[in-house]
């Protein structure tokens, strides 16, 4: 899809997976084998602040969409300085 729709795009070297499905056992390894690309899990808490480090990263992946929408809402209301 990417190559068909973005003809001047650069080669994809890395894929970032997110959402609850990113916690599937063996997913990263299988994707790497099948696609031949580096695979890593996203950190949906990266823009939350300092307190996110104590939160379970596997659990956080389940809230990727909710966190993104919440951050967008805060940003749209100019609450981020």
Quick summary of this structure?
With 81 residues, the chain is of the alpha+beta class. The chain contains four helices and two strands, in the order αβαβαα.
Please give a structural write-up.
By secondary structure, the chain is α+β, with helices and mostly antiparallel strands. It is 38% helix and 10% strand. The protein is built from four helices and two strands; from the N terminus they run αβαβαα. The chain has helices spanning 2-5, 27-35, 57-61, 64-76, and strands spanning 14-17, 38-41. A two-stranded parallel ribbon has the order 1-2. Helix 2 (27-35) links the parallel strand 1 (14-17) and strand 2 (38-41). The protein is flat. It starts with a helix and ends in a 5-residue tail after the last helix.
SSE topology sketch:
Elements: H1 2-5, E1 14-17, H2 27-35, E2 38-41, H3 57-61, H4 64-76
Parallel strand pairs: 1-2
Distinctive features:
4 helices; two-stranded parallel sheet; alpha+beta; 10% strand; 2 strands; 81 residues
